[in-house]
Amino acid sequence: MSNKIVVGTGLPPLPEDLLLARDRGEVLFVVGAGASYPAPSSLPDFGGLVADIYAEVDASMSVPLATLRTPGGPSWDKVPDLLTHQQRTELKFFSQNEYDVVLGMLERRIDGDPSKQSTMRRAAQKVLDRTITPNMLHAALVRLGQRFGQTLLVTTNFDRLLGLAAKKAGYLGTSYALGQIPNPSRSTDFAGILHIHGMLPLGKEKGSALILTDQDFGDAYLRRHAVTSFLYDAARIFHLVLVGYSANDSPVRYLLNAIAADERHFVDLKPRYAFVGCDPTDDRTPIEWQSRGITPIAYDRANNHKALEDVLMRWSEIIPDKKNGMRLRKYLANVATLDPDGVDGKAAQSFLRYYVRRSNPSEQAELAGILARKGSSPKWLAFLNQVIRDMAKGK
Length: 395
Description:
This protein has 3 domains: 213 residues, Rossmann fold (3-Layer(aba) Sandwich); 83 residues, no CATH class; 72 residues, no CATH class. Helices cover 48% and strands 11% of the residues. The strands form 2 sheets. Strands 3, 4, 5, 6, 7, 8, 9 and 10 form an 8-stranded mixed beta sheet that branches. The chain is built from 17 helices and 10 strands. The chain is an alpha/beta fold. The N and C termini lie close together (12 Å). Helix 2 packs across helix 6 and helix 7 crosses helix 8. This is NAD-dependent SIR2 family protein deacetylase. InterPro entries: DHS-like_NAD/FAD-binding_dom. It comes from Mesorhizobium robiniae.
């Protein structure tokens, strides 16, 4: 079982094996809509996107949809508005979180021919074009997604905020969508911000078609197998880490079904993880992910999922990166002042164990010098020597 690395008070511990895999370039982050919720991005989740699309193309559904999204509100068949049978059917599927089905119904009702650039799709782009401002989650994910000098991230989001965050931070990050996406590979050249469900245009850069409706998902995952094949290969090469999803999201259902199908045929799939926001007393939600073959990293969802931003920011600040050198030395110097047997000292031991295992001999010598400075407990050097001996023994 992997050791747990404590990266901050009140934050979920991270599996050491996952951190080491990321440092070797063997982790692929899969980013969902939750990454674009926090300000200043403030984009909606899938349900919010559907509601906003209706506000653009069928305003008579705005109040019924808002009623359904209100906790404790009536069921779909008790909403007291004058709606057609088609509208009420759409309301039913909306209440079941089947948002891709709802958009398919809406598109067929409003446009008739879903194969063209429909009113619904133009409305979706209008909603998603409301912001071009990345948030701190995007910044953290871009840093964590650095692999051999390039950015590697997969996203089901249509927005271009990860690419903008990469550019802002001075990282290389070319965006690809759908048929442009390179096949997963262990090669150091495998890179890019990969929009597996399509992407919006940005300035002079062209966008692509968007996978929005049940028909779109069926075509991409079942008929053409484009996304499914990508996930099959990726799950055998990389540790997949899902960020910004809930278990009820339509994209998650398709993603997990694709991976689960592959698991029946291959025994060499890498471990998969998901950051899962839930109440501290909620044991069911993590188990729900675990039962799907995903290792949950549960965090407190309070304060608009602030802990997710904090843990990813903290993780991104301790990875081996030239931009983290000064920050890491400052952190290690602070660790040297702690009592190794105290609460904070024991938490810091988990980080030092990981740090030693990922570092080279010169970094270990520098760490020994920091721990040997005046005022530091001699127990730190003893701890460091023990970790190095354990490494030599293969523990």
